[in-house]
Every structure is written in C-alpha cells, then in structure tokens.
Amino acid sequence: MNYTFICSGSSPGSGYTVSLPSDTIAPADTTASDSTANDSLSVSAFYEAADFNSIIEPVTVDPADILYPGNSVQQLLKGNAAGLYVQEASGEPGTDMNIFIRGISRPLLEARDLAASRPLVVIDGIPLIGEHPFAYDIQQYDFNRIGPATNLLTNIDPSNIKSIRILKDLASAGHYGPRGVNGVVEIETRSPESRRRITFDSYVGVVQKDNVHTINGVFENDFRQQFYERYAGITERQRYPLYLQDSLNSAYYGPSNWNDLYYRNSMVHSINASITGGSARANFRFALGTQKTNGIADNTGLTRSGAMFAMNMLPFEWLSVSTMVNANRLDRDRNRSLRDRFAEMKYLPDLSLPLAPNKANYQEYLDEFSKSFDDNKNNIIDGYFRVGLNFGKFNFYSRFSVDYNEGIRDIFYPGTLLETNSYVSNYYGYNQRMMVDNVASYSFDWNGRHHLDLEAGQSYQADLHRYNYAYAYKGPNDFIKINLLHADPNLGNYLEPTGFSRFMVFKFLDRTESRLISYYARGVYDFEDKYSFSLLLRNDGSSNAQPDSRWFVSPVVSAAWNIKNDLLKTNDRLDELKLYASAGRMGRLQLNDRYAQGPQYTVDIGWTGNPIASSFNAFPTLNRPYSLGYVGYDIPWAYTDMVNVGVNAAILDNRLRLSLEGYYKTDNELLIGIPAYAEYGYNLAYESGMKVLNTGVDLSVSANILQKQSGLNWNTSLNLNYNKNELLALPGGLDELVVGNRLLKVGESIDQYWLYQNEGIYNSDEEVPVNPETNLPLHYNGISLMAGDPRWKDLNGDYMIDNQDKELTGHSMPLVSGGFINDLQYKNWTLHLHLYFMLGRDALNQAMANRFDFINREGSIEMNSVKEITFWEKQGDYEQYPVYNPWSPVIPYRTDQDLFLEDASFLKLRTVSLGYDLSNADWFTEKVPGISRMFLYFSANNLFTLTPYSGRDPELIDYTGYDTGYGLSIPRTYTIGVKMDL
C-alpha cells in the first residue's frame, strides 16, 4: 500500500505521479484493475506506444479514494508534490487559486501577470484554456476579473481522476512546447473498462464557522481615544466621526451580534456515480456527479453538476478509435462585500457611516440587499476524438480536441443600496481552444540490447477569447431590470420612459485570437537499460509574436545512467539507483496580441475613475495608447533555459525510496514597462530584456516503515521544495526599476517587499536627529519629523527619509514548502494524516495597517475607506504597535514599512481521515452479495495551524504578499462518506 506521490525516476526531468489527493486512506481497488488489464490491453497499447514522454516511463500508481472534500484541482494538489506551490488566498468556494511550479517566472506586479506564470493544466491530453487577462484593460480595480471570476478548475470531478502527474522540467514537459514552459499538471481520468462495473460514492459534511471576537462602538472609541488624548487638538476633536460621537446610539454602541448573520455552520455534499462496460473491442464509461460546497461566511457557495462519457473502440487489430466528452455547469454564490460591489459599479457613495454591528440594523441592510441579484454561471465542455493506427513498430495517431468555457454574470443592485442610484450589469464571455495533433512513432530494437524510439509530431492550436460587457446607472425604478446585452439597440445609450430619468448605459466588447503551430521530432535511445539518451527538437510559430520573429526553435537534451543495472547488479540491498540530467531551451508565449502589432492605435478615451470609455459623444474614436504604453518593433520571443539534475534511489525491497533533484532555470527576454517617451505623451514603453533566475532543490522521501507486521502497515512520505529567485537583468542595462510600490533591483529577489525600516517612535522633538550642516531636523519627503512620528532608519545618512531609505526585505513566496503524509492500515481500518507547511514566507498585514490608519481612512471617498461588516471584528495583536500621531502628514501607519511585515510561516494539520473497508470483512461478503467493495470513512480537514503570524490565517495572503483582510476563512470541515463498487 502506498498513497504518496512516487518519484518516477524516469527521465531527465522526471515527472511525478501523484496519488491524489494526499487525503486518501482506502486501499486501491486491485480487483477492478486486475480484471481489466488483459481485456483493455488491446486499446491502451496504442496510447503507450504513441505517447512516450521520456527515457523511462514514470511510475504510475492508481490513486486511492479521494476523501478531501475539495472543489478544485488546486486544493487536491496542495502539499502533495515537491516543487508545486498552491496559493489559496480565500476560503470562499469557487474563487481562483494560483499554482506555481518551481517558483515564479516574473515579478507579480498585477493580476494579469498571474496568467503568464501559471502551469499548463492538461486533462486526457487536452491543454485547458483559461480566462484571458485582457479584460483588466477596462477595469479600474483588479480585485476580481469582470464576469463570474470562477475558478475553472472546479469543473473536474475528483471522482473521475485516475492520476495526476506534475511535469516540472523541459524534458518531461517538452511534449507541450511553449504552453508547458511553466510546468504541466497532467490529469488522467478513469478509463473505460471491458467489464460491467457500477461505482457510487457520496459524502455529506459540515463546515464549521469561525469563533470571532466582535466589537462595537465602545471598543472602537476606547481604541481611538488613546490617540486623541495624546495628540488631538480642538480641530481634530471636532472632526470625531459622527457614528462614534453618541454613546447612546444603540446601532453602534449596542450589542455587536452581527456575526450570527454573517458567519454560519453549513453543509457540503457530493454524489457521484459511474458505469462501465463493453468488451476488449469496445468499451465505455459514463459518469454523473454533483457537488455542493458552502462557505462559512457571507452566504457564499459553489455548485457543480457534470457528466462525462468516454468510449474506446478497436474495429480492427490495427485501428483504434476513442472519444471523450466532459461537460460541467458551475453556479457560484459570491460574497456581498462592499469593496467588490463598489469595484464592480465603479462608483463610491458616501462612506461616512459604516454598517452598524447591531444584528437588527445589519438585518435591515441584508433585507435591502436581498432585493438585488448577482447570478454567476459557467458552462464548460472539453473533449476529443482520436484515431490510432498500429502496425507493429510503427504507430500513428491523429486527435482533434476542444476546450470551451463560457461565463455569464447578471447583476442588479437597487437604488436603496446606492443613494437612490440603481445599477445593473451583464457579462457574457467565452474562451475557446481547438487543437489538431498528429503524431507518428517508430521503435527499433537490436538484439535486445539497443532500443531506439523515434517520434515526429505536428500540432495546430487556435484560441479565441471574447467578452461582451455592459453596465448602467439610474434605472427607471427598482422594479425594471433590463439585460443590457440583449436590449433593443435602437434605444442607444438611453432609456427614457415617461416620467423617468435617463438610463445611462456603457457597453464594452473585445475579442482576441491567437494561433500556435508546432513541429517536433524526438528520439530516445536506451542501451541495456543502463544508459539512456534523448533529444527533442521543436519549431513553434505563434501569431502573438512579431512578424520578423514568428518562429522559435527549442532543443532539449537529456541522459540517464542506471547505476544499479550497470555496476551494482549483485547488490541485493539496493533496488534502484539512477542518475539523470536534462538541459534545454523552450520559447514562452505572449498572451497579448498587441505586442505582435508594433506601434498601434487603440480606443482609449477615459477620465478619472473610469479608465476607458468606448466612444466620445457616441462616435467611436482611436488614438495612441498613451496610458497603456508604447509597443515598438524588435520584440523577440521570450524563452526559458533550464538545467535539471537528479538521483533516484530505493533500498530494502523498495520500502525506502528517495528522489533528489536540483534545477537552474532562467527566464529570458521578458517584457516589462519602462518609463519612456514622456515627451510624446506615453507613460511607459514595453521593452524586452528582463531576466529572472530560479534555483532550487526538490526532495521526496517515502518509506514503508511497517509492512504487515502484526496486521499493521505504516507508510510515510515527505516532500519539500527549496526555491530562491533572483533578478539577473533589466531592459537597457538598467540596474533597478520602480513599479508602483515595488523595486526591482538586479541581483535581488523579485518577490521582496520594498519597505522603510521602523525602529520605534520619537517621544519628543528633541529625539529627532538634526543635520549638523543645516541645523534642520530629519525629515520625510520635505516634512520635518516630530514627536509621535516613527523612527524610520536613515540608511544613507543624508537626514532625509525618502525612497533611498527603503530596503528590500522579506519574501512573498515561500523559501521552503511541502507536505508530510502518514498512512496506517490495521486489518480493515485505515488512518491518514497530512501535514502541510511553508517556511521563509512573509506577509504585509495591510488589514492591521488600515485599522491603525483610521484618520486617513475616515470619511474620504476612496476604496481604502470602505468598511465591511467585518470592521466590527477584532483581529491581530494591537499591543505590538506604537501609538503614533495619526494626524501626522508623514502617515505613520503607512503600509510600506516593516512595522507590518510578519513571518507567515506555518504548519497545518490539513487532514485526518479514518476509514473502514467493509468489503474485506467476511460477514459482509457473505450477507451482501454483488457488492465487490464498500468503504466507509470520516474525514476532518484544516484542524489546526501553528504559526507566528498574528493575523487570522497565514494562508490568506494574495499574490502580492498582502493580507488585505478580504480573504474569507478556509473552513474546518467534517465529512462522512461511502464509496461502493458493484
């Protein structure tokens, strides 16, 4: 029994086969696999012959049953494979999560950078298409992409997953070319079988709400009075917030019991069933399933319903035909946060009075909110049709595959929520990928000593992304709700029923297309299973590359030495010892087609608060893209160079296995905006030349400590990754570049924070250092520091605190991450424990900075001043921060200082599962004939966290490393379930 991921030791660039998820405790169903092995061989042989990936095939292990009630692939992968890092910034069901393999390839400066850093996800050979970041061009805020913004990887039913492989280097991921340059997550679903088999699995559980410390006006008033008593004058006291002035106001000074309406214990459940059948010549699998995941806060939830059908046919010994269709529907109940609502509306109302913490008052708000709607739906379908030819040593297959997803979001907010100004918006967008692959392979074998596999392939990929989006204000009344995308175009931008004001409509639409055509050849040579060599050559052409550099040639070489078979055959204690290495170069795709066009025009007429308007006085207009940045000529392909070296070892009849890999990866010729051409009106110009290095080590150890001793079996495994990044170059030979609140500096890490170093507080004016040459006190950007201001370190000793005194420190990405897994089996009982950890990761506690910076957040009409109902919840340790003068013009509680930088390392007990296999009990098989397997289990997830971080949860950090306080808690979940085979 082994439920850990297993190092394949396969190749240069070995992949990992993951028994997913790690939260599994049931023994594998060997009965089913044994019975179908011979019957399905005639069909599966075509795939084995045509799809070899590397020198030695990775070890594939059928996963045991999936017991973690996750709703996405990212959740199933977390903590299961060395080198793979999952970022779950919110526990809200259906929100997007980030996967990174072996670090980040570029600085994550904005949300659109995430799309260029994520790995490729492949299901049954279909590279999945995701949302395109071009929609951010019309957004003022990038908290969420317009549309449903649902995690599209929630469409894969975990019950249909047979195995997942993580391909981390160019030798193993090279089959996918530039699409797989960030690594590949390969998902193989359960195959059709020749015997009739019915499976059923279901679970039901509860997610437990958080225990929170609510506060009211009394607490907030006491908290603020320490600042007023020490620093406030008459003017400051006269401006005390109205909602805190009257201590008799029960809405703010009464009971703070809003949490009963916001937090909840809720149910989760899932039901899945499948049927297989047929013969060795033709077989099928049909599966149906539904899953409901409720959040613990703000009435959030996600429902997935789907069906999957796969069929294999072998009409002749030399001809195979197969097809698969996977269709799913996602319905998401989003949060009701003010920030997300105002960002969608691009309109901020009067923010002087926050929501009251009293239950009755909050209920009144929810009653008004219930008159609105926010419908979020996704329809997703992917599938393929494949024909294979087998003529002995020669094999050929041709495959046509499609991945299509569409998102729909309809919103209406009544005028009672927005100063009598109603709001409506509609979004419809889709992403479509069509692919044609043709692959031919031939195998040579001489005297059983020399073996050579040759493969040649061609692929064509066509991607299309499109959205239609419209929003409007000032509806006739709250009872008339219009779908703007399907409204009468003759109405134009106005709807003017008698007696009503004008209906202000703004419409946007955009589409982008790209093409990728690839040719490749690959050869793999093996001598007596001792020495192996491979060579891959690719030529990829992209429509998103500039016309004079459409094509990119990629070579990848690899070699492996099986020391066990070569030198240590007689060593009975050593079961495996292999060394392997790979080196190569692979092009990187540009996601945005505007970089292929050179200098260009765009629709770009806007005003403060709305970045783009599609026309001026109803007339479409074009102008230079001054705010978007200048794109010139001579932009080459970006590309990745990687060297990977590893060793696999196994001893004691494979009871102890080890894999150790080191890698050196550089991403070259990356584009970044550089301030330039201001005299022509541009803010910046995009130039290539940025170079980023990632180096690290992946370690995987698995051991079978007890093997059926006294009926007890104990397997344990550890996986961890150490990764460090460094900026090697910037365009034009620059040494450093400031982008927003980030500093990119050659020789430093790209995930560091750029912060002032805080050393305490000036308790008196006399403590402020004085410049002996000018007799002027130390100042911050021209403002003299005084008593009550922070002691920011003057790094260069010029008696001026400015950007030159900021220091690069901390890391938003973990230096070390991984998981520790233990599986125990005693007779029919199984126990699974999964620990998940991150080390060397820091977070900026922006939520706490906002709490202390109440003066600058109070009353102003800006997004930073929005106060959610969770404003009335105490989080963090208030005692660790000095009492600065909050009215100081230097903004003492500014976020860009290490006062709010904290160690966000953690260790989590992610899963504890206990199961019992009834099918192994004699009394059950005698009394319940016809059921070949029945497994009952109980699972508890996210039980505890050990961390020095003072905030809510060190996982709830966004891609920038900031804890904004908006991530909903990752819930503690308890489930009971059953899995049954007939």
Commentary on this structure:
- The chain has about 1000 residues and is mainly β.
- The protein contains 15 helices and 44 strands.
- The strands form 9 sheets. The protein has a 22-stranded antiparallel β-barrel. It has a 6-stranded mixed beta sheet with strand order 1-2-7-8-5-6. Strands 34-33-36 form a 3-stranded mixed beta sheet, with no helix packed on it.
- The longest helix has 21 residues, at about 30-50.
- The radius of gyration is 30 Å and the shape is globular.
**Helical amount:** 10-25%
Question: Major β-sheet, in short?
Answer: 22 strands, antiparallel, barrel
Q: Over all CA atoms, what is the radius of gyration? A: 30 Å
Shape: globular
End-to-end separation in angstroms reads 23 Å
Task: Give the total of beta strands.
Answer: 44
Instruction: Briefly note the structural class of the backbone.
Output: mainly beta
Q: Spans with pLDDT under 50 lasting ≥5 residues?
A: 1-14, 16-51, 56-62, 492-501
Portion of residues in beta strands equals 35-45%
Q: Please report the number of helical segments.
A: 15
Query: Average pLDDT, to the nearest integer?
Result: 88
Compact summary:
The chain is mostly beta strands and 982 residues long.
Please supply descriptive tags for the structure shown above.
982 residues, mainly beta, 22-stranded antiparallel β-barrel, six-stranded mixed sheet, 15 helices, 44 strands, 11% helix, 43% strand, disordered N terminus
Write the layout of secondary structure elements.
Layout: E1 6-7, E2 16-18, H1 30-50, H2 73-77, E3 84-87, E4 98-101, H3 112-115, E5 120-123, E6 126-127, E7 161-167, H4 170-173, E8 184-189, E9 197-208, H5 217-231, H6 234-238, H7 242-245, H8 250-253, H9 259-262, E10 266-278, E11 282-294, E12 301-316, E13 319-333, H10 338-345, H11 359-369, E14 373-391, E15 394-413, E16 423-446, E17 450-473, E18 504-527, E19 531-542, E20 551-562, H12 563-567, E21 574-588, E22 605-607, E23 610-613, E24 630-631, E25 638-651, E26 656-674, E27 685-709, E28 712-729, E29 736-739, E30 742-745, E31 753-755, E32 758-761, E33 779-780, E34 783-784, E35 790-792, E36 800-801, E37 807-809, E38 816-826, E39 829-839, E40 842-844, H13 846-852, H14 854-857, E41 901-903, E42 906-917, H15 922-927, E43 933-946, E44 972-981
Parallel strand pairs: 5-8, 24-27, 33-36
Antiparallel strand pairs: 1-2, 2-7, 3-4, 5-6, 7-8, 9-10, 9-44, 10-11, 11-12, 12-13, 13-14, 14-15, 15-16, 16-17, 17-18, 18-19, 19-20, 20-21, 21-25, 22-23, 25-26, 26-27, 27-28, 28-38, 29-30, 31-37, 32-35, 33-34, 38-39, 39-42, 40-41, 42-43, 43-44
